[in-house]
Design a protein that fits this description.
Low-confidence stretches: 188-205
Strand content: under 5%
Helix content: over 70%
Mean pLDDT: 90
CATH superfamily: Tetracycline Repressor, domain 2
CATH architecture: Orthogonal Bundle
Largest sheet: none
Order of helices and strands: HHHHHHHHHH
CATH class: Mainly Alpha
Number of domains: 1
Length: 205
């Protein structure tokens, strides 16, 4: 699976034959077909593996997306990761999606992968909303989708231009939108609570 994922990332699914996978992994045809009925089965496994790799690469930031500093730290980490690989290759999951969008089985699996990825953003936005730090009339799922769209578009353009600038601009713009819906964290008692406390406290003569 590792060999197949690496080959498909470098050469595309169509450009990766089962013979190439067997050669790169040092496995025989009987071993390959023991685990995978055909290439579609192998591709399905690669989708799962690449999703796992992407999510692991964004640890631990994915679990701290419930604040503006946490969101910015995640965006910074994504940009830094692309810089380290010199913006070559784009998103492993997004690359598969671009190539396999016409395959019903692969499209379903990839949609589930993006949903899993987005779930961390949804959880973060929901937590912010529950704490009163995000306006109540916005849907956390819609916000997560908009950030994911910015991320994928930025990664695609970064791959084409070989610079992180499009990715940085896309993520910054997405986070500016979140910031415009953000309310500062509550600190201390609210004005109403303070007023009530004051009313109950007798004045000294």
């Amino acid at each position: 699976m590792d060999a197949a994922a690496d080959l498909m990332y470098a050469s595309g699914v169509a450009g990766t034959s089962l013979d190439a996978v067997m050669a790169a992994s040092g496995t025989s045809k009987s071993q390959l077909y023991h685990y995978f009925a055909d290439k579609d089965d192998l591709v399905a496994a690669v989708i799962a593996l690449q999703t796992e790799r992407v999510l692991q690469s964004q640890e631990p930031q994915l679990h701290h997306l419930d604040s503006m500093p946490g969101l910015r730290a995640w965006a910074d980490a994504v940009v830094a990761s692309q810089a380290r690989q010199e913006c070559v290759g784009g998103c492993p999951v997004g690359s598969l999606a671009a190539e396999l969008a016409d395959s019903p089985r692969a499209r379903t699996l990839l949609a589930a992968s993006f949903e899993q990825w987005e779930s961390f953003l949804v959880a973060g936005f929901t937590a912010m909303q529950e704490r009163g730090e995000l306006v109540p009339d916005v849907d956390p799922h819609d916000l997560a989708t908009s950030v994911m769209a910015a991320l994928q578009g930025g990664l695609l353009l970064a791959d084409i231009t070989r610079t992180t600038r499009p990715l940085r601009l896309a993520l910054d713009l997405a986070l500016e939108r979140i910031a415009s819906l953000h309310r500062p964290p509550r600190s201390g008692p609210s004005r109403r609570a303070a007023a009530a406390t004051s009313a109950r406290t007798p004045r000294r003569s």
